[in-house]
Design goal:
This protein has 444 residues and is of the alpha/beta class. The protein has 14 helices and 19 strands. Belongs to the Rab GDI family.
Length: 444
């Protein structure tokens, strides 16, 4: 291979595919390789036979579960915020033409052993059984402040500089109780633990605004959307985008060894005795294990069921957030459910996931609070996987390594990682000031 590439991307996980698409659109010469013979890497969607092979080895799935090809089971299940950054990236790159989306039925939160719909507006707050009558009034005032808040209009700030005031101080001003703070912080602002309370309030306010804007976008029961046929469609859509702009794809390439010069800078990738030269490498942690460190572990259960999750208004697709405090844990637990309405299972079947940042080595015990909310299950699988993040200095070795996927069931942290990598590689920020109303054609 005599030609030199600007970037070689290793692995076809979602992050890597988005980056190869974005870099190809920018006119960079991209070669994309993967040791697997399928797209998606860690974030692939599996049919029933593939799922069984991965978790049960030689066993075959029972016939009662229906046809294998009717299943698209995500290995890293996540919903997308309807107004979030990932949707802006999809619109910016026009990838929406390869995909169909459908709104998710509901967003719920676990509070005092019960599941409640997440109130996201001042009107919903007034109806929610999560709060007593006086608390509702206080919460409504806070929601109105957040809805009206405009960074560039000091009149809406009520004299507070949210870049200096902590979230705790802002919430104290409205006298909200711990339960209310819990669902605002974890189910609306989607923080993963309670560190946000001591950080500037501007971040939480922006996150709450994103939730409300996403909710308003579809007038639906939740702020989330999800692709038909599962998330495995996303990496393939970005791969098609990359190919349209001249990107080259090679699947099923064993080994994929990254080569360095004497100064430690990347010079190419060798597979099957041939070396492709390049200036930069983008990859997931598995391709450069010497340049990453373990930062945690995700515990996860995958369940196949014949009914929706109880107490979620018979929602065919739903997210339930179990805030850490409600469980006496250090981090939140997430419950994600999808079904035949998004074409990820045969008619009458539901796929539920329970995931959390692992705090023990026993996923069965650790995930019990979430599993208890599922009701009877047809089949259940458990796994733990390690999370890694890069420790190298990309400016010295030209290696750009993505962080492993976390336990959250929404895409906000994933996209932040991709955009940071894009900026490090290209030296510029991606302009995502797109008109979201122009994108409604791509929506179901």
């Amino acid at each position: 291979m005599d030609e030199e590439y600007d970037v070689i991307v290793l692995g076809t996980g979602l992050k890597e595919c988005i980056l190869s698409g974005l870099l190809s659109v920018d006119g960079l010469k991209v070669l994309h390789m993967d040791r697997n013979d399928y797209y998606g890497g860690e974030s692939a969607s599996l049919n029933l036979i593939q799922l069984w092979k991965r978790f049960r080895g030689a066993d075959t799935p029972p016939a009662s579960l229906g046809s294998s090809r009717d299943y698209n089971v995500d290995m890293i299940p996540k919903f997308m915020m309807a107004n979030g950054v990932l949707v802006r990236v999809l619109i910016h790159t026009d990838v929406t033409k390869y995909l169909s989306f459908k709104a998710v039925d509901g967003g719920f939160v676990y509070n005092k052993q019960k599941v409640h719909k997440v109130p996201a507006t001042d009107m919903e707050a007034l109806k929610s059984p999560l709060m007593g009558i006086f608390e509702k009034r206080r919460a409504r005032k806070f929601f109105i402040y957040v809805q009206d808040y405009n960074e560039s209009d000091p009149k809406t700030h009520e004299g507070l500089d949210l870049t200096r005031v902590t979230t705790k101080e802002l919430i104290a001003k409205y006298g909200l109780d711990d339960n209310t703070i819990d669902f605002i912080g974890h189910a609306l602002a989607l923080h993963r633990d309670d560190r946000y309370l001591n950080e500037p309030a501007i971040d939480t306010v922006k996150r709450m605004k994103l939730y409300a804007e996403s909710l308003a976008r579809f007038q639906g029961g939740s702020p989330y959307i999800y692709p038909l046929y599962g998330l495995g469609e996303l990496p393939q859509a970005f791969a098609r985008l990359s190919a349209v702009y001249g990107g080259t794809y090679m699947l099923n390439k064993p080994e994929c060894k990254v080569e360095f010069d004497d100064g430690g800078k990347v010079i190419g990738v060798t597979s099957e005795g041939e070396t492709a030269k390049c200036k930069k490498v983008v990859c997931d942690p598995s391709y450069l294990p010497g340049k990453v460190r373990k930062v945690g572990k995700v515990a996860r259960a995958i369940a196949i069921m014949s009914h929706p999750i109880p107490n979620t208004n018979d929602s065919h697709s739903v997210q339930v957030i179990l805030p850490q405090k409600q469980l006496g844990r250090k981090s939140d637990m997430y419950l994600f459910c999808c079904s035949y309405s998004h074409n990820v299972a045969p008619k009458g079947k539901f796929i539920a996931f329970v995931s959390t940042e692992a705090e023990t080595d026993n996923p069965q015990v650790e995930l019990k609070p979430g599993i208890d909310l599922l009701g009877p299950v047809d089949e259940i699988f458990f796994e733990n996987y390690d999370r890694y993040e890069p420790v190298n200095e990309p400016s010295l070795d030209n290696c750009f390594i993505s962080a492993s996927y976390d336990a959250t069931t929404h895409f906000e942290s994933t996209v932040t990682d991709v955009l940071n990598m894009y900026t490090m590689i290209t030296g510029k920020n991606l302009d995502l000031s797109v008109d979201l109303s122009a994108a409604s054609a791509a929506e179901e």
